[in-house]
Amino acid sequence: MRLQGTMQINNQGHLEIGGCDVVGLADTFGTPLMIIDEDLLRENCRRYYKAFTQDDGDGVLYASKAFLSTAVARIIHKEGIGLDVVSGGELTIALAAGFPPEKIFFHGNNKSANELRFALSCGVGRIVIDNHYELELLEQISAAEGYRPSVLLRLAPGVDAHSHAYICTGQIDSKFGFNIFGGGALNAVKRALESPHLDLKGLHCHIGSQIFDLGVFRCAALMMMDFLQEVRDHTGWTAPELDLGGGLGVYYTSGDTPPIIEEYAKTIKDAVLQKCREHNFPRPRLFVEPGRSIISPPGTTVYTLGSSKEIPGVRKYVAVDGGMTDNPRPALYQAEYEGIIANKAAAKPVEGVAITGRCCESGDMLIWDLAVPRIEPGDLLAISCTGAYNYSMSSNYNALARPAVVLVKDGKVDIIVKRETWGDLSRLHCIPEHLF
C-alpha cells in the first residue's frame, strides 16, 4: 500500500496516521473505524485555494456528498473553501457546523418544494437549477414568498468523461442538466433571464467523477465558453460566473495516475482564457467543486480480520467485520483499493488473499487480491483512500451499525462521528397498537 499524508510505519511495525498508532486507535474505538488525516485534508484544501482563489479570486466549493460531518465542514470553512450540498439533510449538517449559508451552493436534480423553501430561507449563495420543472417550481415559490435567489443553470455539455458509466454525468444521455445540443439549455437561459423572480448569475456543468484525463476537463471548459458566447449572441447577456464542477481523480491502486491539483487548475483556466480571447468575452469568475480529491486520500478504514476459507487452487477468502455497508464502491463500480495489515505493517507478504465483507451477498468483496504476511483472526486491515463515498454511501444492510469516524493530528485523536449502536437501529421503528 502506498503511504500518503502523515502515514508511516512506526518502531513497533505498526501503521501510524497523524502520529497515532492505528492499533491503539482500533483498541480504543473499535472497528470498523474510519480515520481522517487532518493534516492531509487541510493540505488538499490549501492547494485548491492557492490554485484557484488566492490569486484569481475564483471559488472552490467542497462537494459534501463525498463525505460530510460537522467537523469536516468546520475545517473546510477555516481553509477558505465553500460548500456544495444536494439535499436538505446536507444543508442541515452544514448549518449545524456554523457554515456561512452565503458560501453554500444548493445542487440536486429533484429538489423538493420544502428543500427549496429551506434553501431560500437560509439565504444560500446559489441554487443550481437542474431542469425545467425545477425552474418553474423555484420561480413560483420565490414569487409567492418574496425571494429573488441567485441561480445557476446546470447544463449537460455532451462530454464523455471516460470514467465508469455510473459516475459520468455530462454526456447527452444523462439525467442531469439542460442539454446544450437540441436547444434545451438556450431556452432555459432565456426563460431564467425573463423571470423577475430569479437572478441568473451563470452556468454550471459537471461531467463525471474519478477522471484522470485533463483533456476531458479542457474540452468541457471550451464547450461551455462557446455556449456562453452563443448565449450572448442570442440574448445580449454576458454570464459573470462559470461553474465547471469537480471530478478530478485520485490514486487508489498502482495503476492510477491522477493529475495533480495544480495541473488541473492550469488546464481549465488556460482553456477559459483561450475562449475569452477568441470571443472577446470578459473572463467569468470560475468555480470548481472538488470532493473526492480533497477527502478521499485523508481517509483510511480499519477492519478486524475474522473467518477465512481456502479453496485449493482457486483462492483464500478472509473476512472482515465490515464490507459493503461501509464501502459499497467495489460492489457498485468494481472499485479497487490497496490495503495493509496495520499491526504487521513491516512484515513481508507471503501469500495473496481475497478480502470479503460480512454481508450476505457474494458481491460483498473489498479487495480481490491482496498480498499479506502471515495473518490470523484479530489482525487489523487498513484500506487506504476511503475518505470519499464510503461513509457517505453507507447503509444498515443486515442491520449492521455504521462505523465511528475519528480525526487524527499530531498524535491526538478526536471522535467526529460516533459509532452507531444496535439500539440505534430500532430507534425509529414503531409497533402499531393492534400488534400488542
UniProtKB/TrEMBL annotation:
EC number(s) per entry: 4.1.1.20
PROSITE patterns: ODR_DC_2_1
Keyword Metal-binding among record annotations: no
Domain of life: Bacteria
Pathway: Amino-acid biosynthesis; L-lysine biosynthesis via DAP pathway; L-lysine from DL-2,6-diaminopimelate: step 1/1
Listed InterPro entries: Ala_racemase/Decarboxylase_C, DAP_deCOOHase_LysA, De-COase2_C, De-COase2_N, De-COase2_pyr-phos_BS, Orn/DAP/Arg_de-COase, PLP-binding_barrel
Binding-site residues for pyridoxal 5'-phosphate, renumbered to this chain: G247, E289, P290, G291, R292, Y389
Residue intervals of the Orn/DAP/Arg decarboxylase 2 C-terminal domain: 305-387
Cofactor: pyridoxal 5'-phosphate
An example Gene Ontology molecular-function term: diaminopimelate decarboxylase activity
Active site: C360
Family assignment from sequence similarity: Belongs to the Orn/Lys/Arg decarboxylase class-II family. LysA subfamily.
Function: Specifically catalyzes the decarboxylation of meso-diaminopimelate (meso-DAP) to L-lysine.
Protein name as annotated: Diaminopimelate decarboxylase
